Amino acid sequence: MKKKFLSLALAGAMALSMVACGGAQDNAPAATTDTGATTDTTAPEVASELVDGKFADTRHITVEVYDRSIDGGSDVTNNKYTDYIKQGMLDKYNVEVEFVAVPRWTEVEQINNLLAAGDAPDICVTYDYATIQTYANMGGVLNLADYVDTYKSDLPELWDWLTEYNMYYDKDPNTGNLWALEAKLAVSNRIVTFIRQDWLDELGLQAPTTTEEFEKTMVAFKDNADKLLGADASKMVPYSASYDIGWRTATLIESFIDENVTDKEYYLNGYDDRKLTENGTKEAIRLVNKWYNDGLMWNDFTLYGSGDSTEDDMMKAGYVGAFTHNWDYPFRNGEDSINHVLESTVGPDAKFVPIDPFKNANGNYTKFVSGPIDRKIFFPSTNDEPLASMLYLNFISSPEVIEYLQIGDEGVTHNVLESGAIEIVAATGDAIQNSGFNIDYTITCNGLKLQDQAKTDLSRAYSYAFNDPELVQKAHEIANTDLKVIAHASVGEITAESGMGDVLSSQRDVVYDQAVVCKPADFDSVWDSNIQTYLGMGGQAIMDERASAWEATYGSTENLQ
């Protein structure tokens, strides 16, 4: 009955929200339909207390797991690792666990649908906090504030790993509401640029170390397409980027942003992690526009959306000279990794190597990073087992569980080298990991985290089967060069953000993509008009409310550190 009632309530609230906004957006702000749930911070009584640390009667919970549609991967809801978790939760807490697959590349849309229908798993994971806030305002999300405190003594592993910083990161300082817990990054690595070493060698070039050198190198690749690709010269893509320009040219964009930008200015624009409205971004994209019009970029990048394999296939076939992406992207997926397939397809010398070419005006390679936060974990209000769900998070946060899920069994998914380092090897069958370090199961942890930190540091370079450990280590070092950690501003809910995450993200991609592909003479008008549309759709309202919230909380303070 609870599920049916909530489903109807949420559906009705969403309908009212759409009417209030003219029905133009599925994810319209829901602040005007607040059910009052945001003020309810009382944790309900549990049906029975734990006896010797476990339930006397068996409980059942459902847990979201991403389905990445990996060819030849294991069943994401039924494999070696799900069995390990299920048995461990039964043995330790007498809790049955059932996994529910959610497509990774449409996760926001799917979570929205599941929440609206009252069918969301008891434990949900998303990168989009705005979705959580929207449904929280409609009574669709449990307030975790009392749970994390009341059950603290039962959750030592969770508290020890996340610490107060991640546990309370999303806690509203005004209401005390806590709608989500922030998973923790074990490493802060984000984005690195990679270039074909064999092409550099073929043309007698050194790896570029400045933006100007990078552009000249891309020109050299284009001008020597016949030499580098022979009969496939027409398929040459000197520099590749997908539709998500804000992510895929991030280090270039950041090189145009003042590295001494104040915490306040960064925060006002920081609701979008693609840095669309930061000062400097427009000029960075003007340069990308030049590269596109000079024929240095993938001409059709706007046609291929999230999850499409076309770009990866071009890289594996040997047509791409350079790209910017997640710091470990060419090493992922073992035998099917970009570098390994490239080596097998083109030749033993063909490989992408990490470089750090985008130097800022101060001569640094500054990379902006948030604190060690990652995915957001929340419980929908249909969750009738909040304690069992909290115990699940505690279980998967224990060091031995994280380590096992990440490296599996010796001789199956890893070897132990003479140095003591863990070397990941390609697994088969239900031992295949569908995500790097199995992060789809270690939802409180992203990045290699063995029980021993020294072993973790020693093993990181050997964590990618079929790939050169030296390249992995170099990429790790570049990703950590000249980091600027942005302070966390805790000012409470920004109501203008509610329901706008997916809407503004889509428009942001339109701004970036159209600005890149337009004619240089049209760049300013295209950028400015699309930015005005973006701001009018809600971006300006968010920045204005953030400015007011900052001033109410911190006054005239510009920096928090």
Write a concise keyword list for the protein shown above.
D-Maltodextrin-Binding Protein, domain 2, 561 residues, 2 domains, four-stranded mixed beta sheet, alpha/beta
* CATH-defined superfamily of the largest domain: Periplasmic binding protein-like II
Mean pLDDT: 91
User: How much of the sequence is in beta strands?
Assistant: 5-15%
Tally of individual domains: 2
Helix content: 40-55%
Strand order of the largest sheet: 3-10-4-13
Number of strands: 14
Model regions low in confidence, pLDDT < 50 over at least 5 residues: 11-48
Structural class: alpha/beta
Shape: globular
The value of Rg in angstroms is 24 Å
CATH architecture of the largest domain: 3-Layer(aba) Sandwich
N-C termini distance: 49 Å
Total of helices: 21
CATH hierarchy class name of the largest domain: Alpha Beta
Task: Give a structural overview.
The protein has 561 residues and is α/β, with parallel strands linked by helices. The protein has two domains: 168 residues, D-Maltodextrin-Binding Protein, domain 2 (3-Layer(aba) Sandwich), CATH 3.40.190; 248 residues, Periplasmic binding protein-like II (D-Maltodextrin-Binding Protein, domain 2), CATH 3.40.190. Helix content is 41%, strand content 12%. It has 21 helices and 14 strands. Strands 3-10-4-13 form a four-stranded mixed β-sheet. Helix 2 links the parallel strand 1 and strand 2. Helix 2 crosses helix 16, helix 12 packs across helix 21 and helix 14 crosses helix 15. The protein is globular, with a radius of gyration of 24 Å. The termini are far apart.
